[in-house]
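User: Sequence for alpha-L-rhamnosidase below. Tokens please.
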Amino acid sequence: MNKPFLINIPKLYSGGIALVLMLTFSGSQAHAQQLSVSDLAVEYMHHPMGLDALHPRMSWKLKSDERATMQTSYEIRVGKDAAGTAAGRNLVWQSGEVKSDASVQIAYAGPALQAKTRYYWQVRVKDNHKHSSAWSQVDYWQMGMLSTSDWSAKWISTYVGDTVVGPSPYFRKSFSFSKPIKSATAYITAHGMYEARLNGKKIGSDFFTPGWTSYHKRLLYQTYDVTDLLKSGNNTIGFALGDGWYRSQIPFKTQHGYYGNQLSGLLQLEIEFTDGQRQVVQSDESWKYLKGPILYSDIYNGETYDARLEVPGWAENTASTSKWKPVAVVSAGAERLEASISPLSRKHETFKPKQIITTPAGETVIDFGQNLVGWVQFKVHGARGTVVKIEHGEVLDKAGNFYTANLRSAKQLVTYTLKGAAVEEYEPHFTYQGFRYIKLEGFPGKPSAADFTAVAIYSDMKPTGTFSTSNPLLNQLQHNIQWGQKGNFVDVPTDCPQRDERLGWTGDAQVFSRTASYNMEVAGFFTKWLRDLAADQLPNGSVPFVIPNVLGDQAGSTGWGDAATVIPWDMYLAYGDKDILSNQYSSMKAWVDFMTGKSVNSLWNTGFHFGDWLFYRPDDDNDGRAAITDKYLIAQCFWAHSTQLLINTARVLGKDEDVRKYSEQLENIKKAFVKEYITPSGRMVSGSQTAYVLALNFDMLPEELRAQAADRLVENIKSYGNHLTTGFLGTPYLCHVLSRFNHNDVAYDLLLQETYPSWLYPVKTGATTIWERWDGQKPNGTFQTTDMNSFNHYAYGAIGDWMYRTMVGLDTDESGPGYKKITVTPKPGGNLNYAAAELQTLYGLTSAKWTRSSQVLQLDVVVPPNTSAVVVLPGGAEAAITESGNPVKKAAGVFKTSTEGKDLKVNVGSGIYHFEYKQ
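Assistant: Structure tokens for alpha-L-rhamnosidase:
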């Protein structure tokens, strides 16, 4: 028997936080934790409300400290009450013992589920060590409306034909009951944005509801458990409406009311009493309305609020209703009502002022220290009728003055009129701003930092990934990448959160989706958005530039339309979710067929394309090293890429005929590319970095020409002094290609470059988010063009994908997507002493960290239960490698070792591993 030994990993960093993992093992691992099940989820959510999936998918995680633990079977039971389910009585469905290692996305397979009904469930499992878990804790999900007949509520508005943009209306209804209640559920949606209250308290924690969808085709409703907000006797429920995306000035400054001109709401409250009886309170003719103090509220322009017009207790029993008017019942829209499936916008981090500045121009400006998206809460005391104005901006100009020219026509202005109370507190309702700085006008007295709080608001995605290194600038870059995602994932993946745009640009989302899936759990977020992409896709298969589409027939650009294929595949890799592929397959296929229809002789060289958007443009267009890339060359590459992804998807879904058809098409696309864009000697017609990157990344070149193409790419980079020149489409793949073709040192040179153009130049300049342009603020302190210069634009943050998957090496094997099969293939480089990444997968925590010192390489790896991993130790083929002090080949949990060139490949099961060797 082996002697017990202690594994101590004191520096497994996670976002700068040391994770201490100490486990005692013996030969039999007698001290291993008992097998258990935790973290139950349904459709990626914990006890979700209002599902309309007819076969909800259940997931769970295994807990076990014993190495190489795999689930061998599971058993699920579902019932209609918690106690009965826990006791195994009165069950709706039992799966029986199922021999399987599947623990994510297991579809309910019992009798048809009933609308508006809560279901409770448990799971227990067995593993390959002959352990059996106890039944998990009881969890639940609740079904929503499953047909239009489930809705009895009516759409209500102020009066028929009220299309005037103005004060937000408040709606209310009083009701009473005396019986003890078992549960109460509210179903709510609106044309516009709503904020609902019950007995004066906000319903739910969400903002900007019901969210932005293709309103002409589908509208989401939210479901809330409001049992705790009700009381025996008299009650009052109500909601306020704002213009939101439905009626705000969108897109740009061209029009109001893109989706409709009249705001309206729909609410249905269902109360179940302990005696089994029910009471329904619903929006109808009996409701009343009143215009409130929100005089104006717009997505881009902010909010105007007059506190003198407040209606105290407007959603409480005590409010006077003498001035309230009868509502009008209006017709429903033609759109489908669907349950929310994505995380809604909520409040997150808060920031107190870093400093209060008097600028050279005499302005009073508050710096919150972080470019964020949300709004400012403030306290104020002053005379009745005093008007306070707050403007929001991202940067100060070279002289240190407040700067808003890059907002274009967006005002980002909050105007508050005081009512004259002792202390007044305020925050906006139906608008959000992108800002780091605010400018105060009319604020009475001297502003105090204690009176102001900036609140970050974004979709409530669970944080999943962390990344850190020994280089503080890279750590700040990771911070900026994450905050670029937070600020632009506000219900849809916007391009920027501050100027008069804030649209779901497909190209931006496409290049960033893989990185996004590391930082946060975005399965629900992108599932929702991809449904709108399919809904708004043009009849010929062309994909609009923005989703939801508010730009008409502007569609079909390469790299932008490819969001239809790239993002579903990225989500499949990240979460192993076949439903995303099957649901989007028709859309994916339609986009590929659109490109095919625009081609002649397998060459796509027609139509408008954005090309390598915002690439670095030097003044050397004629010296043979220009950064300009032929747009049709790019189109051919992305056509091939999307075709390959369609083939991959067809293979996963068992569509063999499509695999054959599109494989033949892909071969022709690549032949046409070589004929059109490659000289006989292997030189590309466009000699830019992006041209070589795309050709190499998408395997457009014959095998024998790839190495020299990679060498030419390196020559180009060095000719620019180890600087990149790529734009939106070339940048995500640049370091990947360099590492793949044995130029990892050049990839590190680019990543660690601190002068313009580079990823670290904005960091050195003080950026706290990713910029739209490489030189949004120039080295001389001046700004790029005001027409298009966002300081919160996540596209270039796509480098995060390389940092996770190549630098640290943490990835998923395509044969076991969703991190069922993990790969750890680190590529240390640069002047870094360590690099570490963690990821909360659907199976649990996985992580990797390499450390270099005195020619010794240490690699710490965590593999969650019910998964396996392949760990590649760079330069380890001939080294004497130990794992937790033992020879690697004899270590517990190690199944197999093999050499791969100069590297050692180690196949391991779940557990915590510490590899160490001299390079």
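The chain has 15 helices and 50 strands.
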